[in-house]
Amino acid sequence: MRNLLKDLRYAQFNSAFLRRLLSHYFKENRVYRILWGPLRGARMHYDRTVNYHTILGLWELENFHFLKRLFIQAKLLHPGMVVCDLGANIGAFSLWFSRKVGDRGRVYAFEPAAPVRGMLEKNLALNHAGNVQVVAKACSDQTGKVKFYVADDPLVSSLYENWTADWKIPSREVWVEATTLDDYFHGSQPRNGPDFIKMDIEGGGVVALRGCDVCVERNRPVFLVESHFPPEDEAISALLVRHGYQAYRINNARWVQKTGKIYPDPEGVWGKLILCPPEKRDTLARVLP
Fold this sequence. Notes:
Elements: H1 2-9, H2 16-23, E1 30-33, E2 43-46, H3 52-56, H4 61-73, E3 82-86, H5 92-101, E4 106-110, H6 114-126, E5 132-135, E6 138-139, E7 144-151, H7 161-167, E8 171-179, H8 181-186, E9 196-199, H9 205-208, H10 213-219, E10 222-226, H11 230-243, E11 246-249, E12 254-255, E13 272-276, H12 281-285
Parallel strand pairs: 3-4, 3-9, 4-5, 6-8, 9-10
Antiparallel strand pairs: 1-2, 7-8, 10-13, 11-12, 11-13
């Protein structure tokens, strides 16, 4: 019953009947205003790759719920911050961050897949999100050209070759530009930040988390990370151990007790996680369930 109530609260359900009904209203290449949720009032282009949860404003409500806590109660997100949105897709999180960091802040929206990046740029322009900079690169542990696997479903595209294969969704191999977060922020053209990193890159955290050690040591950012499979669990665990970070699991509202272990250990690293440096743990703990 508890899981059912949680699914209903965060709109984590699908209905073939509702999809058929909505298909009569939402049409390709039109712009719609989002009516509900954390992006209420924003405008967004619609095409067949956009799921109805997103265009209705009901996408990722659980993650947005925790981000709201970080912004309003813990002040771990606040105006003027520099945020990285890794795996920006069509821009739902980038638009939310844009509102929260304000004119003095900056959002870097990383999206290597050209088709979905076009939608991202259109949505940002529609909403006059001038504090968001689109970065047409993948985040990795190296700079230069890397292989990227583009699937028909943009939520499945990944740097990790086996990811699209596991989903049994057709994909094509393309070459894209890659950077590390360390090089992007502390390389030859240094930038301020990052203060907060959202990472949902469909298995790509396996490599991206190996390329941000300088950022973690110098900036002590808070992360919102979604791990998709054991290799990504291992990459997150390694970062936690290297830097003494703590992790809170959103899925079951518990602190990770064994940061050096991964799934299937229930106390290890898996799922949707907030990662924070130890000096920010008490601030975070005061606003968590």
